[in-house]
């Protein structure tokens, strides 16, 4: 499935994504600046988190609380190899039955199960994005 959306529609798109994904582990692919973090912020909001989401580029993981449980947002852009993810306990996180949003998953692909939803975010122009469910 493919969705094309304006950034002004991102809250509606987030709700739609949550209703159509096949897994609670979402992998976000796309170039730097494509809008992965922006989309994740909208997803966190749609799930009812009280905190505003932000990029975990330096901390590797951010945690958000909702009435239904925790959400984990990972950004592996800065890691050099899978050992860094293992050292921070990624396997424990992946085994939790909760929402997990992972940016730059290609850096840890060997650690991921097949039960994930891959999403590719593409920039069409300054205000328009395309989202591909892979």
Automatic annotation (TrEMBL):
Keyword annotations: ATP-binding, Cytoplasm, Magnesium, Metal-binding, Nucleotide-binding, Transferase, tRNA processing
Full protein name: tRNA threonylcarbamoyladenosine biosynthesis protein TsaE
Family: Belongs to the TsaE family.
Biological processes, Gene Ontology terms: tRNA threonylcarbamoyladenosine modification
Taxonomic source organism: Gillisia hiemivivida
InterPro entries in UniProt: P-loop_NTPase, T6A_TsaE
Subcellular location per the Swiss-Prot or TrEMBL entry: Cytoplasm
Signal peptide range: none
Gene Ontology, cellular component aspect: cytoplasm
GO molecular function, one term: transferase activity
Organism superkingdom: Bacteria
Listed NCBIfam families: T6A_YjeE
Main location: cytoplasm
A Pfam family assignment: TsaE
